[in-house]
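We modelled the chain as a single entity of 348 amino acids. Its sequence is:
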Amino acid sequence: MGKTLPSLLSRNAPLASTREQLRTLRRLPLASKFSDALAVGGLYPLRPTGIDIMQINVGKLCNQTCVHCHVDAGPDRREVMTRETMAQCVEVLKRTEIQTVDVTGGAPELNPNFRWLVRQCRALNRHVIDRCNLTVLGLASQSDLAEFLAEYRVEVVCSLPHYRALSTDAQRGEGVFEQSIKQLQRLNSLGYGEERSGLRLVLVTNPVGAFLPAGQASLEQEWKRELDRLYGVRFNGLYTIANMPISRFLEWLVGSSNLEQYMECLVNSYNVVAAESVMCRNTISIGWDGKLFDCDFNQMLDIPVESSGPRHISEFDLEALESRSIVVDQHCFGCTAGAGSSCSGATV
């Protein structure tokens, strides 16, 4: 088992470029390349099963700076999606049957056009997911955000590393746990987490260290019991997501001499069944500038969709995108280890 994350990371140090991150992973003396692992199971080249989800990253601006963040988001980031680009996403929805819009960031709610996007998507009767860090709900500028989300029946998927303060604050900053619990209780008061309300509330947990998450089903039972007992908090589901060896987490792995050990763990835990259900097979990821990617992780490594097809939302071609080959590299072992990992939690 790897070491646990420190309570603080050197968050002002420059991150390695996306190209250098890929070189770092490719240089490791691992037992397998990801493409070879796919080929053994008859999955290479990896292809979409369809596009059911449009995941839109509306920017890297965030009110937090978390040590595991694969987006490298924070208060100093200025990459923010414009309304023009959002409108192009809405136009794609109008002419396709894509049913789910997964809005992420950064803290997506800090984009000044976030609410406009939600209204447009709901007017088209699309299911909208907000990837929320919880503390954003407590900002003075977002005092009515929780009520807005409830009014438009947005599914709220919230990051919470643990149901105890120590682990959460170690990963996300001092005092974040207390603020998060307060906002979860507020969401509960609006009906979120109640089965009959239809207001779905999901928690997301990443391991606080260089190891794979525990079983999702058993953790969900434990979390539901303990959060209700300790704080009266209720929620509908728990997603377990493996830490991806990119961006800030990669920096920590290198600095703590955990990188090779962690990557060996991912490679040795490769699960062909998990690979069959990775999120890139039914999701298209859209960057803050409208560029198209196979997944959110490829987006953060600046690995666009294959060059033979459309590469920007303004050129969106559903048929071409559904017939493309998905671009893979060594970091993809993070989504296929053990029970698998995706934006919707374990895949097995």
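As a brief sanity check on the tokenised model: Confidence is low (pLDDT under 50) at residues 1-14. Residues 216-231 form the longest helix (16 residues).
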